[in-house]
Amino acid sequence: MTLINEFVSAVIARSSYEEEDRIYLTNRVLALVGEEGSQIPSQESNIIALKDHLLEVAVQNGKVGPLLEEKDCLGAELMNFITPIPSLLNRTFWQTYQESPEKAIADFYQLSQDNDYIKVSAIAKNIAFTSPSKYGDMEVTINLSKPEKDPKAIAAARLVKSSSYPKCQLCMENEGYQGRIDHPARANHRIIPIELTGQKWGFQYSPYAYFKEHCIFLDAEHVPLAISKSTFTQLLTIVEQFPGYFVGSNSDLPIVGGSILTHNHYQGGRHEFPMALADIEKSFTFKGFEDIEAAIVKWPMSVIRLRGTDKVHLVELAEKIRLSWRDYSDPAVDIVAYSGETAHHTVTPIARKRAGQFELDIVLRDNHTSEDFPDGVYHPHPELHHIKKENIGLIEVMGLAILPARLKEELREVENYLLGRYNKIADYHKDWADQIKESQHIKAQEVHNLVQKEVAKVFVRVLEDAGVYKVNQEGRQAFDRFIDSLGIEGEF
Fold this sequence. Notes:
Largest sheet: 10 strands, antiparallel
Strand order of the largest sheet: 3-4-5-7-6-13-14-10-9-8
Strand content: 15-25%
Structural class: alpha+beta
Helix content: 25-40%
Number of helices: 16
Mean pLDDT: 95
Radius of gyration: 25 Å
Low-confidence stretches: none
Distance between the termini: 74 Å
């Protein structure tokens, strides 16, 4: 069969199109990619691979430019042939949900992979490993899935007329959006509408996932991310509606927040993060909330865990903690709630459901700066920036490091340096590498695993820097003072 025939056959096999639509489909695809080169023989059956071949045909025929961003726009349009229109998809999702929420979610996840919205092959390029620590096994990902911007694409983007539509990459208006050189292609993108506390929200998957079924819940309105009482209610409602999923929110302040603070959203998925598996350090009960189990988690960041079956009561306690933390200062350990009118305290909340009980983790955050730490007192300190200097958002808080792509090659040079081989080690890694040399007997067959373990150790230190109450006697006594200020039953 020819390339065009194979692609059309694959579309018919994976969509509501039928055999009698073949001529129509063929002509619509030819209109997008051009006729010349589309009739070459092909034995490929994978629809994404066929799409990629057709994109090269389109480039040769002048139907699309050679830049990745340009090809992505056409590629998403080709994959839109197997993607149901939103009304049909949403109707099918909710009909299936009535019989089996798990199946409805699984079907939508499968579609998001099949139609190349989730970039499965790109995600597979990521380097991922785990490493033990005193807090449990830490997870590390060197992010290679998102391609670096081509300088030509950057230059081309500067020439594109500025547009405020969609307002951001999380807006509902992205569904079906063609894309452009400075905004990702979304023709094959679909959002499932949901309702949270009487508000319209959407549920979608992340195109560049960092863990299994990495998804996003987004406000239908383009409003800033803000942690409030309704946040806790919405998170607990989501884990009711999406069995087996966790869900959490980035903090709503700069430095300790995520990369997108302009649009209210949460992230979730089907993954057990290291923080969720961490041991309990100390248990206690808050006055007036005797039905809720409370504890400090043995974790480098400062985490209060609440467990109970009464969703309303959990929300009330979580809000009490948030409001108390918002105004709480302890100068003895550099806990600063305000600088003038500027607030510094917020939380990173994470919800899950286990054995019939809700579990809500509240991570205390502080974004104040100082002369010594202008990037943030509770931000990775400068000596760690050679590995991680970006904000510590929700995913990292839970124990999964997302590290920059530059480290793939840079760590290989570190390995060469440690073995005394010719290398091009970056200057900013040299002190770290020398410390490793001094403390380890290094063997060639073990150097790769050794460097990975040392990277994980740096990540643990990153989290310790981000923790407002340090894991030492002074820090734990200070943490106890805050807990005690909330009112607890009995001795603490």
